[in-house]
Amino acid sequence: MDLKSVLRTCFVLFFLTRGSAMATPLMADYSGQDYEVSPKHSEASKKSFQKSLSGLYSIESWRAADIQQPHHNFEDLYKVAPSAQQELANLMNEVGLMTNTNIVMPDVKSRERAEKKIATELNGDASKITDLARASLVAEDIPGLVHAFELISKEATIVSVKNRFKSPTDSGYRDLKLLVQLPGSELIAEVQLHLDAISDVKNGEEHKIYEQIQHIERTALSQSRPQSEFEVAQINKLRATSKSLYHDAWQQYLQPATIAV
Q1: What is the mean pLDDT of the chain?
Q2: Strand 176-181 vs strand 102-104: parallel, antiparallel, or unpaired?
Q3: Going by C-beta distance under 8 Å and a sequence separation of 6 or more, which residues neighbour residue 27?
Q4: Band of the pLDDT at 173, cuts 50, 70, 90?
Q5: Helices 205-222 and 196-203: angle between axes, nearest 10 degrees
Q6: Residue 144: enclosing H or E segment and its boundaries?
Q7: How many CB atoms lie within 10 A of CB 214?
Q8: Is residue 34 within 8 Å of residue 261, measured between CB atoms?
Q9: Over the stretch 43-66, which tens digit does the pLDDT of each residue have?
Q10: What whole-number distance in Å separates Cα of residue 192 and Cα of residue 215?
């Protein structure tokens, strides 16, 4: 074999050996498994998460004095409820499109339920009922929820905020509950801002638990008496179950999002 042939053979062997060595790490990098983000990206993710969480916690709970509907007569109030619900739907559609949140628009509160609430919880004062028109927005994450709150505050007059992310209910439920006065109808409507995992619990396993608690509480109210020891024990047991469900749902939002490839 001449020198030229020897050099050609050596070159081919070198190329094949080098190509084989390079292939191994590439296959490992793109194996389809998740891997930890770089320290730089991890720190950025952590800061973004902390900012959004602090933004949510900075929303203070408050309520304007003497909140009343524009009509004191129930019939007059109920007549404008459908148009107010449509006005609220238009507002929610705009906010939903800008924040990538899901909109939930129930029907106007039924006449039967509205009249029962006025009689048992509002001392017969129809002007105090604030959830004839109502809507919900469901966000995938905390930044989306906070952004939706900011947009609503610009488009309607907020007259009450209850931040139940800071102070959850006894059952462990968390949301941001607003009362807003619509600019057109002037009706006060209820808007709830949810996170999707918590909303799934609320509309799933916890729904029956909530109905049982409401039944016990409203029975006592309708009879103008305090709850019995047995009723209190029932409620405490039901809320302990709810608290566990909601705790598990909330935990997933307390860490920065990971990046998967």
Answers
A1: 84
A2: unpaired
A3: none
A4: confident
A5: 60
A6: helix 142-155
A7: 10
A8: yes
A9: 666 777 777 899 999 999 999 999
A10: 22
